[in-house]
Amino acid sequence: MNNDSLVVLWTSGDKEVATKMVFMYTLNAKKKNWWKAVILIVWGPSSKLLSEDAELQKKITEMKNEGIKLEACKACADQYGVSSILENLGIEVKYMGVPLTDYIKGEHHILTF
Q1: What is the pLDDT of residues 17-50, one digit of tens each?
Q2: Residue 15 sits in which domain range?
């Protein structure tokens, strides 16, 4: 497997997990070229946290500007009523069951929080 693509699946609603691990690693993975392609998936409680936190939203904008692909689970975002907020942050909000399955079955490396 000669693959240089990372998928970070962020499900935690804990801000400290977001700032001290998820965002730090994901952003540096792209900025420092540790991975050629980096995808961040916002899923579950993380979507609610992100919709409410300006500091995390600023980091998401930085990730987008670095070329990190941003995706969010539509079913989860709809349950929290935050789909439009996430979309306004430049996140592609879509049903993620099939895409995540494809990532797992494909040659992506998956990191979950």
Answers
A1: 999 999 999 999 999 999 999 999 999 999 999 9
A2: 10-112
Helix/strand/coil percentages in the chain, nearest 5: 55, 20, 25
* CB-side neighbour CA atoms (13 Å) of 93: 20
88: left (phi > 0), else alpha (psi -120 to 50), else beta?
alpha
Residue 35 in domain: yes
Q: What are the pLDDT digits (tens) for 52-93?
A: 999 999 999 999 999 999 999 999 999 999 999 999 999 999
> Is residue 5 in some structural domain?
no
